[in-house]
Amino acid sequence: MQTTIQFLGGAGTVTGSKYLLQAGDTRVLVDCGLFQGFKQLRLRNWARLPVTPSTIDAVVLTHAHIDHSGYLPKLVHDGFRGPIFATDATRDLCDILLPDAAHLQEKDAEFANRHGFSKHRPALPLYTRADADAALELFETVHFGDRQEIAGPFAARFDPAGHILGAAIVTMTAGNRRIVFSGDLGRYDSATMLDPTPIRRADWLLVESTYGDRRHDTADPEDVLASAINRAAARGGTVVIPSFAVGRAQTLMYHLRQLKDSRRIPDLPVFLDSPMSIDASELFCHNHRVHKLTAAQARAACSVARYVQDPEESKALDANPMPKVIISASGMATGGRVLHHIKHYAPDPRNMILFAGFQAGGTRGAAMTAGADSVKIHGQYIPIRAEVDNLQMFSAHADADEIMTWLRGFEQPPQEIFVVHGEPAAADTLRHRIAEELGWNCHVPEHGETATLS
């Protein structure tokens, strides 16, 4: 039976991951991500999929990040009714992330209508909380290492990828065909997360390339974090850390706890100002079997910060001149409470905006880390006079060397490797390196391309 794969997202970009497998009349979508970043990418979220959602038999998720799961409510809104297979922790995280994403969609539309800066009359959300709730009802959980029948000839096995809680490398099988999806590979020797699982065999492989053209800084992350916080504290400034709610916030709190306990930074108050980050942190504490920390270590890390749930308390942080550390979502400054903190703190050179990971093109984070003098927030331009830095050694993604280390774990070359989930330069650099160093057959697919797995 002929099997094909169509690249509906995560090709030529780091967002919107969607890969449609088809064998006969059976269709399975691996990942169902939202496009983020440049406007021309975000517009794809509103475009009709080239496949009718009601004809998709199942969805398989590698992990919960919005660029891999955030289109699910729209898929359900448009008619998908099949099962969504994911690990337990991925399902639990989606229970946090998808309603929050829907809430942001609704709030952004409401704000645009109230202030009249949308070109659409009225501005509508891409999907609603009801759509997110409907998507969550379709989840079926799978344990790491178990074989799961998916639909038709397709079955799947999930193995730990590191990266974040529940993240998986997914091996899809159809008859004697084995198709491996790396998902987002984590780091080796992370302070908090497991190493990515070695995979021994694949006929076809989709490998991410977020950092396919870069190596992470090898400096000790606690040294660099301490230096940044001490610089801002010496100026009497506040450090605002736009952080991914899942994974990054918890890792940052772990390192802040280590630094405070060793008295390498002043005893500044730390605030975790993101209900989603708070929920993810509680989940982190209760899922110590799928990360490196003990339950006691995880609880100690999370206790370094005061949780800020109430919007009025969040606003009070900006009114209080006391130097402090504020960790707030989102990690690329694309939405959420962190935008209000950036509006308040970025114009003052005493303060610091401290990013902690990859910034996709077209995001405010990418603009700020590239040295932008101002960024547009809520319809107005905000001057950036605060110090801006990006601690990329805190990234949860494997760098180019770590990806190559993982690839060398295969016992024989896959028939073909598709290099996905990377900006064009990163994907092509990794393609070239795999071809040169391993001699494997590599291809960087284009958005919308279909390949036959024969």
Describe it:
With 454 residues, the protein is of the alpha/beta class. The chain has two domains: 3-214 and 396-453, 4-Layer Sandwich (Metallo-beta-lactamase, Chain A), CATH 3.60.15.10; 221-394, Rossmann fold (3-Layer(aba) Sandwich). It has 14 helices and 22 strands. The strands form four sheets. Strands 6-5-4-3-2-1-22 form a seven-stranded mixed beta sheet. Strand 1 and strand 2 form a beta hairpin. The chain starts with a strand and ends with a strand. This is MBL fold metallo-hydrolase. Residues 249-368 form the Beta-Casp domain. Pfam families: Beta-Casp, Lactamase_B_2, RMMBL. One of its GO terms (molecular function) is RNA endonuclease activity. Residues 15-244 form the Metallo-beta-lactamase domain.
- Could you name the ranges where pLDDT drops below 50 across 5 or more consecutive residues? none
Strand order of the largest sheet: 6-5-4-3-2-1-22
Helix content: 25-40%
CATH fold-level name of the largest domain: Metallo-beta-lactamase, Chain A
Strand content: 15-25%
At the first level of CATH, what is the class of the largest domain? Alpha Beta
Average of pLDDT: 94
Q: Please state the CA-atom Rg, rounded to the nearest Å.
A: 21 Å
- Overall structural class, as computed from helix and strand content, comes to alpha/beta
The total number of structural domains is 2
Q: What is the terminal separation in angstroms? A: 9 Å
Question: DSSP helix count?
Answer: 14
- What's the total count of β strands? 22
Globally, the shape reads globular
Domain Metallo-beta-lactamase: 15-244
InterPro entries: Beta_Casp, MBL, Metallo-B-lactamas, RibonucZ/Hydroxyglut_hydro, RMMBL
Organism: Thalassobaculum fulvum
GO molecular function, one term: RNA endonuclease activity
